[in-house]
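Response to reviewer comment R2.3. The reviewers asked that we include at least one raw input/output pair. We reproduce the pair for Cation diffusion facilitator family transporter here without editing.
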Amino acid sequence: MADQCCAGKSGKTALNNPKWRRILWIALAINAAMFGVEIVAGVAADSRALQADALDFLGDAANYAISLGVAGMALAWRARAALLKAATMLVFGLWVLGSALWGFLNGATPQAETMGIIGTLALASNVAVALMLYRYRTGDANMRSVWICSRNDAIGNLAVLAAALGVFGTGQGWPDLAVAAIMAALAIWGSLDVFRHARGDLASVARG
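Raw output as returned:
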């Protein structure tokens, strides 16, 4: 069991075993469904935080699909896939940051009740996925990128709930925008972490 968790270091991989692939398929389905739910709710509630979280769900679904596509491939290919995912995380973070700044200048006050309900549903979904992926958090860069996405999502959902409370308590939109900015920072930080591990994996391949 320990060898599977440390696959990136041993040269072997747990990525192609049936349990790992089943978890990724479940995670992909959950994230795709929650993207649909959150993007509709985010637009209806005029919440930048919910819209940002919805796009994060979409990005994660794509990341899980990439991980399934490279399962069983050589470490170098898995590391390149992780670099691609890190790039998408970085783009997402920059887009959300820009959206938060735009909302600060032009946005209205979002609906706190909708934010709270959808945020709770999203948190439950992401915690379930994170628990399934927890045992694989110390693998190669590709496995770690999947874990980082899920961990950041759960943290982001807690922030959305805090934003809902802030909007409800103040009657203003700035808590929603602040949380969107925090989620952007998480995505940017996570992308840099994945970049670092992917480059390490590629360096280990180059050394032979």
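The chain has one domain: 12-207. The first helix runs from residue 2 to 5. Further pairs are available on request from the corresponding author.
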